[in-house]
Amino acid sequence: MEFRSWATNQPNEYETFDCCVRTDASGKWHDYNCKMSFKVICSDVEGQNVTFVYININLNWTAAQDYCREHHTDLASVRNKIENDRIRELIPVGQFVWIGLSRSTWKWVDGRKPSLNYWSKNEPNGAAENCGVGNFGSGYSGRWEDWPCAWKTAFVCFSDSRHVVKLKLVRSSALNLNDTTVQEDILKQLMQKLVNQEGKENFKLSWKKQSDGNVFYTEKKKDEI
C-alpha cells in the first residue's frame, strides 16, 4: 500500500476488531470494527480502468466484500489520490462507507496462520501492540501476549531446514550463466514454478558459489576426461 489517507491519529486499533477501514465524504480513512454495518463502495475493473460504485445498503465488512465480488469486481481499492477523490465524491455528507482495506489476522513471519492458540487471558488486547511475545515469567508458562514492537526483550531464533540441489542447465546459446543478471532471472523463473506447484511463497532460493566464485561451470565431455 503506497497511497495513504488516514485521518488524524488513525489507525488507532481502539478495539480488538478494529481491523477494517471505512471512509467518509472528507476522504479520510478510519479503522473500525469489521462487524459494524455501513454503506459500501464497490469497484468495477476492466484492465487499467476502474469505476467506483456507491452501494446504498448497510453491510458489515465481510458481507460488503461478498456483495461486491458477486455484483461487481471487489470492494474498492485505492491506489492514488485521484481514485480517493473519486470515491469521496460518491459519499453523502455525514455517512461512512467500507472500502477494501483491512488488517490481516495474527500470523507467523513465514505467512502461516497459528494452528495453536496460546494467548494469556484477555490477550491480545493492545491498541498499537502488534508483535507477539512468550511470557515465561512465574505463572505464565510461556503464554502469548501482544506488545509494542519497539519494546526490547530477549528473543528466540529459528533455523529452518535447507536443501542443496544440483542443477544442470542445457543450453545452445552463448549465454553467460555466471552473469549475475542471468542468474537472478533464472531464480525468478524457478521461484515462480515452485509457487505454482506448492501454492505458497514461504521459501527462498539462492545460488551456491564454487571456490572460484562462479556458480556454474562447463561440464566436460567423456572423451575430454
Automatic annotation (TrEMBL):
Keywords: Disulfide bond. The keyword Disulfide bond applies. InterPro entries: C-type_lectin-like, C-type_lectin-like/link_sf, C-type_lectin_CS, CTDL_fold. Coiled coil: none annotated. Residues 1-43, 47-158 form the C-type lectin domain. Pfam families: Lectin_C. The keyword Disulfide bond applies. This is C-type lectin domain-containing protein. The lineage of its organism: Eukaryota, Metazoa, Chordata, Craniata, Vertebrata.
